[in-house]
Structure formats: structure tokens, C-alpha cells
Design brief:
Number of strands: 6
Largest sheet: 6 strands, mixed
Structural class: alpha/beta
Radius of gyration: 13 Å
Strand order of the largest sheet: 2-1-3-4-5-6
Number of domains: 1
Helix content: 25-40%
Distance between the termini: 18 Å
CATH class: Alpha Beta
CATH topology: Rossmann fold
Order of helices and strands: EHEHEHEHEE
Number of helices: 4
Amino acid sequence: MNVRFLLDENMPFSLLDFLRSRGYEAEHLKKLEKVGIKNGEVYKLAEQHELWILTRDSDFRNYHKFVSHNVGGVIVFASGDSTTRNLLEVMSRFLKTCCEKLESKHLIIIDDNTIKIYE
């Protein structure tokens, strides 16, 4: 399976580099010159190629919006520690422990202590 990611504009470029260094295809809204687009447009962009959306935007936690779009999935980072270092560590742990969840559509919310996975 070829997992592909779309990073929201609130995600650091270092996450883009991190994912690509691990063999994943990834794009960033800023590099696509899509800064400031509405969340619905982010969903539409992700739908075109069944991309996983990676974001810190809590609006993407809305399950009803999630199920109404044909995206690869959504991962929302909701940690109190919003440093880039922590984000990279959290993503690394997720890929080591829950990588199989990327094989099908899920809404995944990662906070300080838990990973919540919705189908």
C-alpha cells in the first residue's frame, strides 16, 4: 500500500522531511501554494489522491465531516506540547506502533496520553 500524506499549513516542514526520509510520499499546503484555503478545500485536495491529512487544526476532529469525505484518513495532533521535536517523536512512535492503521480510512486523534482511532 502506498500511503501518502498532505500536511496542513500548521505543520512544520521538518515533518515533511521526516516522512519523506521514511519512504512516504508527502506534500505540504505551503509548498503547494495553498495557504489560507478553507478546511473543505483541504478535504477536496486530499480526496483527489486519497491522501492522509496531518493537522493540528481541531476542526478536523469532527467525525461527521470526516466520514463525508473520501480521504485516506486524518491525523489530528492535539498535544499540549506543540514543539516540533515533540511532534516528530509522536509521529515516530505512531508509525512504529500503529502503522497498520494507515492501511484503511481512520480519524486518528493523538493527544498527550492517548491515541484515539475512529473508523
